[in-house]
Amino acid sequence: MSAVYCGSKRSYFDDTPSPPPSSKRFRCYSPSNPPSWSSSPSSSLDQLRTAFPHLELTVLVEALEEHGSDLNAAMKSLYALVSAEEERAAGNKEKADAAGAAFAALPASADDWVSLLVREVTQSTGTDDAKVRTERVLEALEKTLSARAHQEAGKKFQEESVAVQQQVEALIKDNTVLKRAVAIQHERQKALEDANQQLEFLKQLVPQYQEKVRNLEVNNYALKLQLEQMEHGNSMMPQRFNPDVF
């Protein structure tokens, strides 16, 4: 921002915008303009809840208790409370807007600050005035640097937060993949254990079947010997002829 000075002795900071006059804003009804209902509420508390829907129930109950269940007195008290809160909020907003406008009007570069300091000193009316003007410039510079540092810190924090969030999302994704891999490995390990158990069971059956095979071989050999003996005995018996043939 550049400013034109034509021999004026006014300070640069005398031209900074001042906060505009506060304006009162009411969201609720005013005491002179009470609300109207299509149907009469059943109790004083219902009327207060209708007139002040944004207030907590405990606040309405306390207002009634403080004024001895006097509805009009309780409503006036709540109107005053709401008005004070809105005026305070409006004042804070106006101060913030004025501070933002004043901050935007300050020099942006180092050369501009030097020029402003020189101009303030040269336009001073004396040593005391120059000292006051210098203090104003230095104070404004300090506030500007502090505000910019906070702004940069907030921006950096936001960037770091985004980076951390991305890292967290990547870790969550990797964790999901890892869990899936562990589950698959667990299933394979279980299948391998089942196969090993089946193999051990079959190994235990092998000796039993081998013993059965040996017993069958022995029995087969014994039957073979008996069969040979029977055949040999039949061949040694004398042959008998039928007498009717002769």
TrEMBL record:
Coiled coil: 185-219
GO molecular function, one term: ubiquitin binding
Low complexity: bias regions: 35-44
Keywords: Coiled coil
Keyword Signal recorded: no
Domain CUE: 40-83
Region (Disordered): 1-44
Domain of life per record: Eukaryota
The protein, known as: CUE domain-containing protein
Organism: Brassica carinata (Ethiopian mustard)
